[in-house]
């Protein structure tokens, strides 16, 4: 959940039904607010379960009418929730084009689009639209506080990961060009893009076997590429893990420390339960918002 200081998540009014529903939808402190979150989570999980069960042909042929009614009930409920979210915020358009707004729209749009693709020739399209409803699971991420830390770590490591991907792409192009020259079209390496596909499969240690080197030199290049694949496969994991550990430490420090400054030496960043400055020992001012007790 985004902080309430975001202009697009400010309440439309300071009083009345909009403010009351804004608190229920976007806050998580009181019992009605938590009950709303739980009800929405159960509805999302139930709708996903319905789509998954409906994909079983034997069940679909027998209970398709009931599944149709249940799916529309979920769609109307999520539509009401989407409209309500737009109605209670100060800037509805900004929320509509935000990440959460697009996810909310994607969770209801396929059902409405299925009304405009009737006919036997469109059964495949209808099936795709039905499966797209599974994207409702993305709505669950807003109720997982730790997802913010995960996304923050991924964003902070983006440059390192992009450099790594560029390096992998460079190795793929070089290996693909080499195998195109060494093996040639007679052994299945009909073009450099095809050879690059083989290089990606080889470095990922998948080995489909649809394109296989036949010459000794080609097998040597393959062996080197496999060793390279094993050596680089853990690089992005290590980069992301390092950033995640750093984000977790920062979140823990922010939760454990406060901004009280020592009246004597001016040192900041003391533990919330500290009574005296860790540098000079002077008495610290009281914490305005102490942490709630655990348990």
Describe the protein in words.
With 295 residues, the chain is mostly helical. It has two domains: 7-144, Voltage-gated potassium channels. Chain C (Four Helix Bundle (Hemerythrin (Met), subunit A), Up-down Bundle); 158-233, Orthogonal Bundle (Helix Hairpins), CATH 1.10.287.70. 62% of the residues lie in helices and 0% in strands. Helix 3 (57-88) packs across helix 5 (99-113). The longest helix has 32 residues, at 57-88. It is flat and about 75 Å long. Mean pLDDT is 79; it is low at 1-8, 120-124 and 288-295.
Poorly predicted segments: 1-8, 120-124, 288-295
| CATH class term of the largest domain | Mainly Alpha
What structural class is derived from the secondary structure elements? mainly alpha
Please state the overall shape, judged from the principal axes of the Cα atoms. flat
Number of strands: 0
CATH topology annotation of the largest domain: Four Helix Bundle (Hemerythrin (Met), subunit A)
Sequence of secondary-structure elements: HHHHHHHHHHH
Fraction in beta strands: under 5%
- Helix fraction? 55-70%
Quick one: biggest sheet? Answer: none
Straight-line distance between termini = 24 Å
Annotated CATH architecture of the largest domain: Up-down Bundle
- Domain count, please report it: 2
